[in-house]
Amino acid sequence: MLEVRGFRGYRFNTDVVGTLDNAVTPPFDVITPAERARLAALSPYNMMHVLLPEPADGLDPYQNAARHLETWIDGGALVQDDEESFYLLEQVFQGLDGNEHARRAFFARVRVPEPEEDLILDHERTFDTKVADRMRLTEETQANLGAVFVLYADPDGALQPFLGQMDAREPDAVARTADGVTQRLWRVPADERVSAHFRSRKLYIADGHHRFRTAREYRDRMRAANPGAGEQPYDFVLMGLVAFDDPGLVVWPTHRLLDIPEAFDLDVVLAQLDPWFEIEPVRERLAERIDGSPGCAIGLAVHGRGQYLLTLRDVDRAEMLGADRTDAWRNLDVVVLHRGILERMFGLEEGVELVYEARFDTALAAVEAGEKGLAFFVKSTPTEQVVACADAHDPMPEKATYFFPKLPSGAVIHRLR
Predict the structure, then answer these.
(1) Phi and psi dihedrals of 264, rounded to 5?
(2) Range name among 43-52, 97-106, 348-357 with the lowest pLDDT average
(3) What is the pTM of this model?
């Protein structure tokens, strides 16, 4: 049974930290080293000091993060709420279409499922090195500093009155984060009706797969170290929940850029692609052609050689991509790109290092300027395919989805002790 509960969160006290614009940030995994330095310089209370910590005064980075967190709490910069609460979040942002959008969510603590429970499903592979990094940070800070972003079904709008509390009054906190998103937060009482809504449901991870795996492994380690301790804060993980049918839920495409491989010959490559794809040279409006094409359509730009629209023919995908994975996986455009083109036809290894870019114009400009030799352009992955791969337990390639905006870090913190 899925357990979604309120909690006594820690939030920044603006009387101490000043504007939240300088404290609340996007999550750590979308921050470049240069951006990390810029944000950390804004304020001694910026979340970068604990999300991406640096060593200081003989402390390793993780110990220094814990010192920052405890100093903030002891000095009143972070204050724990008196009552168990849910935290409503509205994120206002500009989409790739240039229009303003708003997405609604709420923060809660969710019980970490047991190994045999199929209650919270993921769709991406995780990597041991990334989990080890987040584990060290969790062990030292004993906190969920950022939320796992999950999706839930509410086809009848049962939770709309709950979320509608955002319309009744001004928010308790507002921050404009470095990604250009306005974050508006409300604290509301924990509502048993909300918890009841989720008891027979599942959650699907949109973003934060490494945070979720870290939470499971941390729970297991703490249980082993404290047998018979009963229910503990580490049995739960901080999550931000968004409805599948929220009008502000958007998935951006993630285009791929790479250097031209050795011995690359475009004419040979196009000949290899021809049995599988209809190939059309395109002089302009490639992005519109991709989005307007039915089925699988992939754009290709080659430095000095122009642009092409690759439309997958009516082929046997198992023959093209192999029969070792599920139909849900083979139906992904990014799988056609990765296994069908990059691995099978380019001879690149699985997991080859790529540059990912959501904005078509930025990716195309990088190729035209010669910064990268090739760019592949894809459609965004529909949430239905996210669910299909999660239900099939067949993980997508890395960066198959880009849910924008990410959930903010520092809007509310869940301590694990």
Answers:
(1) -70, 130
(2) 348-357
(3) 0.93
